[in-house]
Amino acid sequence: MTEMTEEVKTDGQTSAVSGNADYSKSEMLAELNEIFITEPIDLKAYCLKALCCICENACDILCDVVDGPNPCDLCCCCNAPDPKRCFKITYGESKDKIPLFDIGVKAQESCFTSCIPGSPGLTLNATLPEEKNGSIFMINKPFRMGCCCCNATSCCGGEYMEILIGNALVGSIQEESDGLGLRDANDQLVYIIKLGGGCCSCNVSEFDIIQPDGNLTGKAIINEDTSKVEFPDNSPVSSKLLLISAAVWLRLLNDE
C-alpha cells in the first residue's frame, strides 16, 4: 500500500496527498444491500448528569445562605462528564440484527470556535464492538459557521465532513445548494442526498439518494428512531462508507 501523508489546513479539514485507502476492515459492507443505525441511551450516564445538575443547584442555594466554600468543588459526582454518544451500525432482520461496528462521537475542543456561533467540530471513530481502541474508519467534521452561500470547504460555509481510513482519504460530504454532495477522494461527485429544502432537513424522514446526473437511484436514507441506509446497486465499499457517514450526519443535524 502506498504511504500517504496528510496536510492539516487552518479550517480544520485534512487534505490527502497521495495513496489508496485499505478497505480490508470494512469489506463486510461489500455484500450488504442495507444497514441500520441506532443510538442506545446511556441511562447511567444521563442519570449521573441529572444528579449532578440537581446537586449544583442545591449547592448554589446553600452558598447564598451560608458563607463558605462551594460543596460541589469537593464532590466528584458534581463533575460528571456529558454522556458520550455512540451509534450502533447493524444489518439483518429487525429481530436478529447483527452488529457491524460502533461509531463514537468526540467533540473537537477549541477556544476560538467556542466563541463563535456555528456547527461544532466533531471527530467520529468507527470501531468493532469488541475492539474500542482500533479504527475501521474516521470521520472528521470541522467547525463550520453554516452560511449556505459559502463553499463548504471554507470555515464560513455549510457542513463539511471527510472520511478517512488511517491517513488515506476515502471521500468527503459537502453541504451544497441542492443537498449533500458525496464526493470521492478525487473530489468527483458520487451521489447527492436531497435535503428538505435549502439548508434545512427539518421534519423530513426520507432522503433520496440521487445520481450525479440527477436520476434517482431508487434508494434512500430513512431517518427515524432506527435509521435505514439503502445502498444503490453495485455501490463500492467507499461509496457505502460515504452514505453511512451522511446518515450519521443527518441524525446529528436533527439534534442541533
Structure description:
Mean pLDDT is 76; it is low at 1-11. This protein has 256 residues and is α+β, with helices and mostly antiparallel strands. The protein is globular and about 55 Å long. Strand 12 and strand 13 form a beta hairpin. The chain has two helices and 14 strands. The strands form two sheets. The protein has a twelve-stranded antiparallel beta barrel. Strands 1-2 form a two-stranded antiparallel sheet.
| Oligomeric state, counting identical vs distinct chains | single chain
SS-derived structural category: alpha+beta
Low-confidence stretches: 1-11
Largest sheet: 12 strands, antiparallel, barrel
Report the C-alpha radius of gyration, rounded.
20 Å
**Major sheet strand order:** 3-4-5-6-7-8-9-10-11-12-13-14
Q: What is the mean pLDDT?
A: 76
**Order of secondary-structure elements:** EEEHEEEEEEEEEEEH
Strand tally is 14
> How would the global form be characterised?
globular
Q: Helical residue percent?
A: 10-25%
Distance between the termini: 39 Å
Q: Can you count the helices?
A: 2
What proportion of the residues form beta strands (DSSP E)? 25-35%
